[in-house]
Amino acid sequence: MKKIFVRIFDFFNTVESKIAFYPTLLAITGFFVAALMMYLEGQGISKEIMDVLPLLMVEDGDTALSVLSACLGGLISLMVFSFSMVMLLLSQASSNYSPRLLPGLISDKRHQFILGIYLATILYNIFTLFSIEPSEDKYTLPGFSVLLGIVMTIICLVAFIYFIHNISQSIQINNILDTIFESAEIRLKKLIKSEEDQNKTFPDTSKWHAYPAGSSGYFQNLSINNILQICEEEKTKIYITIPKGLFVLKNATFLKSEKPLDDKVVKAFVSNISFARGELIEDNYTLAFKQITEIAVKAMSPGINDPGTAINAIDYLTDLFALRMQKQDNGIIVHNKKTNLRVAVVTFKELLFNVMASLRTYCKHDPIMVSKLLWMLKYLQNQPAAEVNYHTQVSEEMETLLKQAKDSLESETDVAAIEKIYKA
Predict the structure, then answer these.
(1) Average pLDDT, the chain
(2) Phi, psi of 336 (to 5 degrees)
(3) Is the Cβ–Cβ distance between 364 and 401 less than 8 Å?
(4) Within its chain, how far is the Cα of 10 from the centroid?
């Protein structure tokens, strides 16, 4: 039963990021509210409210039809315009910054809720229109349902104003960078906290039994408790050879087991691992480094030529790298003082190289950007690190950056300036 709940939770996390999830949920809610109001109208709720607050009720069937029809037409136009704004936002973010930003922007719950409110109100008004007869008098007219439809339409107008404000904020690069940073920061702090006070050792896995995943896709998430439970039942240790966030090939080695496993057990392990065709920062913090790096690289391209955005991106990368230096590279998961599971991780050296390789290529000709990158690396040299070799790796990247910058810069003044920063 516990495994079923964990899988349901993983499935919910996957579908929650889809742009249609909350709009569909709220649209269904609007339908059921309309059905509930039809039942309450059959019980005479409008007549009772009419006797208490007659000023709030519509007393003519034709007026009720006209009002709801106007609300319905306006809401459909409003929804079409809002969807167009979302598509424009996604298109602009993809062309100006990075296509990798799209999953995060699509999963913005504020946009989803607003679009869902529109759909719920439209469905409610449609089904309420069905229950109105033009010849009905004020005591048989579903006046309370009509009043509720008008109130929901007003709520949609308020939501639209907020939607315009939020769209204008969402497309600003500072807000995009801040959102990416906050998601990665939360994920990294959670991982760092899980490593506290843990003495971690794991056997050599080079001669363990290897098994493929059987399916391809991005390694998105795994049900740790279920996998650890299977490890205890089979009395084995498991090493997952692919880091989270990377693409898993169908026939490549994915699992290694200390003891041989039959096909049924291997399938049980794989069934507790989520594969997807997209990536989310909430599941994989390294995606934040990729996204921010791509924003900086795109900003330094000749077509965009926006060094200010690149500098902002490097500031966020500096803070994230300083936080990443507090995390270890072993990927061992300790549960009840047992180390039955290890997951491969993107090491600090690999992460730093992947970021710096892209930035060096596009920024080595700009002395301001080289100075900023040197400032970032010198800052990291002075930060506390979970492993002693982190500072050495930072120094190696600094030397590589300086060498490439010297080869690319033509001005001796620029070369002298960056050498001065390097030696400071």
Answers:
(1) 83
(2) 55, 40
(3) yes
(4) 14
Q: Residue 125 to residues 56, 57, 75, 149, 362: CA-CA distances in angstroms? A: 18, 16, 10, 6, 55
At residue 372's C-alpha, the angle toward residues 367 and 373, to 5°, is 100
Judging by DSSP bridges, how do beta strands 338-343 and 247-248 pair with one another? unpaired
Give the CA radius of gyration of the chain: 29
pLDDT in tens, 200-225: 678 888 889 999 888 888 887 788 88
Residue spans of the chain under pLDDT 70? 1-19, 54-56, 98-107, 134-140, 197-200, 277-283, 335-337
In whole angstroms, give the CA distance from residue 55 to residue 51.
Answer: 10
Q: What's at 102, amino acid-wise? A: L
Rounded Cα gap, residues 123 and 129, in angstroms: 10
pLDDT of residue 2: 45
In the DSSP assignment, the letter for residue 74 is H
Q: pTM of the entire structure?
A: 0.75
DSSP state string for 194-253 = HTTT--------TTSEEEE-SS-EEEEEE-HHHHHHHHHHHT--EEE-S-TTSEEPTTSE
321-335 tens-digit pLDDT: 999 999 888 777 776
The answer to whether 367 and 408 have CB atoms below 8 angstroms apart is no
- pLDDT at position 263: 86
- DSSP reduced 3-state for 334: strand
pLDDT for the residue numbered 12? 58
Q: Which residues pair with 210 in a beta bridge?
A: 256
CA distances in angstroms from 398 to 373, 401, 421, listed in the order given: 8, 5, 11
